[in-house]
Amino acid sequence: MASENDVHAWIREMPKLENAYLQKFRLYESRSNFYMVGRSKNRSVWRVLKIDRSEVSELNITEDPTMYREVECSELLKRIHEGNKSIGGLKFVTACYGIVGFIKFLGPYYMLLITKRKKIGVICGHAVYAITKSEILAIPHSTIASNVDYSKNENRYKKLLCSVDLTKDFYFSYSYNVMHSLQKNLSTNENDKSVNETMFIWNEFLTTEIHNQLNNNLWTVSLVYGFFKQVKLLLSEKEFKLTLIARRSRHYAGTRYLKRGVNEKGCVANDVETEQIVFEDVPEGCHMQISSIVQNRGSIPLFWSQETSRLNMKPDIVLSKKDHNYEATRLHFQNLYKRYGNPIIILNLVKTREKKPRESLLRVEFANAIESINRHLPEESRLKFLHWDINKYSRKSTNVLALLGKVATYALNLTGFFYCQVNPNSKPKDLLNQDESDGPNNVFSHDSSDSSYKFSVKPPKYQTGVLRTNCIDCLDRTNVAQFAYGWAALGHQLHALGYIDAPIIELDSPLADDLMGVYERMGDTLALQYGGSAAHNKIFSQRRGQWKAATQSQEFFRTLQRYYSNAYMDAEKQDAINVFLGHYQPQVGKPALWELDSDRHYNVGSRGSNYIEEAPFHRSLSDGNILVDASSAIETEEKNEESENLFREEAQDSSSKGLSESSPEISTCETDSSYPRYTPSMSRRQILLDAHSEDYPNSDRIFFNKRLDSFNCSNFLDVDWISSSGNSCEDEPFERSMLIGSPVDGQSSENVVKGMSDSESCLHVKGQEQNGGNVNGGEYPDGFVKWVMHGGLFFT
Description:
- This protein is an alpha+beta fold and 796 residues long.
- The protein is built from 19 helices and 24 strands.
- The strands form four sheets. It has a 15-stranded mixed sheet that branches. A five-stranded antiparallel sheet has the order 5-4-3-2-6, with helices on both faces. It has a two-stranded antiparallel sheet with strand order 15-16.
- Strand 13 and strand 14 form a beta hairpin.
- Helix 3 packs across helix 13 (548-581) and helix 10 (476-496) packs across helix 11 (510-530).
- The longest helix has 34 residues, at 548-581.
């Protein structure tokens, strides 16, 4: 049996940092300076920051190095007041809870402050907060003249910035790195800088100036955008806490039709990391068991787009022939390898059953890209994939969640999950370095001021690798699959915590229903951010036994809501995101943001829905700053040698092409295994039959579904085994979607409405002139616009 000292070496430690971080602030002003006073949580440390107000276009920040006590700080403020009495003295401005950042447009600098907050959760004793109110202040004093020539554009930029609502879906912590996973926080030395250190920090650009001048982050908070929800659940009269976190990447960020696919640096649209944390509900200050699992979603990493259209709810998918060797796709998976390790498991849910090939074009080309990358990787490091048409199964009475649960369990066995024991009030650098084979579990007694109880010491578990899920939008179908993975993981997590005897939770159990509710809420939140409406949750609704007509009505109105947002609101929303993230920085004498075609990806000709003109390929502002040089974190930060070698591009001969360069039609040619060019006369079956013919000769063993028409395949599990639950999944005739017919579950609004005649015309708009920011322009009733903007019930 190990000694008690050995036991504590087995227990990971979280930082006790309440005295090191400033958490509450008071802002004062004189005519010449702002003075910000910050204090620690227990009021033992007081610091002072001075911001110069005499310069119109420069930001000068000075930090007083002295650590004051409360009385000393009060005396300092009195002296400052006395010294400025002749020009008005020192005035209190506002209480606040941190600086979001500083920004400059064409005139002065502005400061963004958090003025109200609320606690939304606790991780290992460390509070996590949401913003409930923020404020923006101009730095120069009102007596300092500004150039009125730019006032109109200046106000418009300021309005754009303020349209990014910091009170929705942003969260932060003073003492816990909420932008990182639990495993990373507990497994990384304090001085270690990772390749993706700021990937999920949305105010990174806004804090650049103050960080550069002060060389610390005492005064700022790191904002993460996405989703955070913590709930207390009950299992067999034992309580535990479940936390679901979604972190949205700031790279290539934006809205649905303006951000698709991948950019040249390997960043994909709608890139979201999801973490599910489970821990014991124990008395404060006690050792606890904690577990987490991380998964990822992101757009299909190819160069493709869909043009926003006010006349078409289902825009054509346009696949570019830009990246013949799939270099951007390779960079994307290289980055995933750096972040998560091996294996990378791809779950691709796009359709293969289509009357007119749309999604299936991307599915075939994505398979080509994976094959091209795998050809140059050692067998143990190859990308693992499953192409599984979720629509095929969900159209029947199949229990789709049970089938996805099988896939999730198999993937979970490959990646593992994180588990350890932590002391919430210690430092993180004393890390656990024992293996699972170090010895049997031991039991020790832990005494605290409030309780005494026994805990079992267990060796840690680690997650290595990640499951990456995608559909077309990475919203609706993807969220269903992510719930299935979270459901499978929860059984293993609770088993590791000792709450259940076997790592299985029945899908019909109340616990699974509670988990589904949290994932459904996350799906709605992420869908609103990227797609403009809540998620299509037909599978969840069916699972709960919701009335079919109510489900159909809800899905239809969400389709309309998403269409309206994409067609009329996303362009301005994208501009606001580009300004907030610093992808566009205004400059005097340069074109204004609204004068640029900044997020146009392709020039689509009139000679066919999938024809790409030979015009220049327009990239979005998220690739870097058009007017100010900027580089990706992936390029500028230190590279991981192992992953560089693992994903190094091999020399390829001239015949290695992904998309044919000579033909205007969409082409999906590969080195030795050529896919046919798509022409309008080709049937869906023909393109899939030809694509299947070579069976990926250089890849791992590929498992195909016995029904060739479905073309589900994988290189790491048997597709027929997934569907061996006894449910019928035979093909059925293709059915046209009706206007109020429920969309196929999990699929986005782009796949909803066909055959609209007179009813459709009420949604079609001949055009809209810009009129002072009125997105409606008189085309829709005010009640409809209000419903689109704010949700709730809609009455005609």
